[in-house]
Amino acid sequence: xxxxxxxxxxxxxxxxxxxxxxxxxxxxxxxxxxxxxxxxxxxxxxxxxxxxxxxxxxxxxxxxxxxxxxxxxxxxxxxxxxxxxxxxxxxxxxxxxxxxxxxxxxxxxxxxxxxxxxxxxxxxxxxxxxxxxxxxxxxxxxxxxxxxxxxxxxxxxxxxxxxxxxxxxxxxxxxxxxxxxxxxxxxxxxxxxxxxxxxxxxxxxxxxxxxxxxxxxxxxxxxxxxxxxxxxxxxxxxxxxxxxxxxxxxxxxxxxxxxxxxxxxxxxxxxxxxxxxxxxxxxxxxxxxxxxxxxxxxxxxxxxxxxxxxxxxxxxxxxxxxxxxxxxxxxxxxxxxxxx
Length: 340
Prior knowledge:
Blueprint: E1 15-18, E2 29-31, H1 38-44, E3 50-57, E4 75-85, E5 91-97, H2 106-116, E6 126-132, E7 137-143, E8 147-149, E9 156-158, E10 161-167, E11 174-179, H3 186-194, E12 198-202, H4 208-212, H5 215-219, H6 223-237, H7 243-253, H8 262-280, H9 285-288, H10 292-306, H11 311-319, H12 324-337
Parallel strand pairs: 1-2
Antiparallel strand pairs: 1-6, 3-4, 4-5, 6-7, 7-10, 8-9, 10-11, 11-12
Helix pairs in contact: 3-11, 6-10, 7-12, 8-10, 10-12
């Protein structure tokens, strides 16, 4: 499994993490709980660098800059380069980007994320910070604390993180995601997005700042959201499920087509069987009982992790609140709640 964390010329991995849990790759600098502010974590991860935009000049195969007869360099007008400014005065070319690209520094994106969750810079728990792909990407994970569902019964604790992602490559948008997966490498960043309950993205344009102001509304990261989520989960936990109800939920989420071919029928029945198996496992009914909460989680697990699609497609569908995947989750929740 590749971690994609940048390893500096000094041999140090450009990552820092709370020492409450060591990442699987065992790279980066462990930090005490009293040193988890944004500034301290950025410095420890060597992620507090500046990125600047530069014109792109043409260079021949021998490394010589091409010049016009008047001595001026040949400039590629429709492109710009993102360049990292290192503390020792050297530079690293990161990527070529479009002329509308606006740099958002890592510290700016992380500070805005802290604003989204209503935390001040001095007391927020920034759990992980890292630099990926040679400086082209940045990630951080803000620990929002666990949310206990049914504290007198099943004690299902949902870890809550705000995943933060920034890119200097013209491809990776500014991203905030409400997820239960702790980001410690490139793979867990993707997995966190794949499992995210809600995601906000903004392109690196002049409108990025104003767009990020809407992040809290999109993510519903407020205390009110957490309370409402808990109330809904409690209602779902109180709804008993039986084989008849289970079949109704599954057939509503993945309905039979009017005129199915034999192949379509076989595929649908396979999906139904997979969802039933997921419902029975220890993460759902096997651990938390035969109830609506387990049923809804089974639907979500299938859509996010088991359905026949590649990881990128599943991640994109989960991130898009208007996708059929997101709509199926919402419709399933409403249907299960109607079974009271």
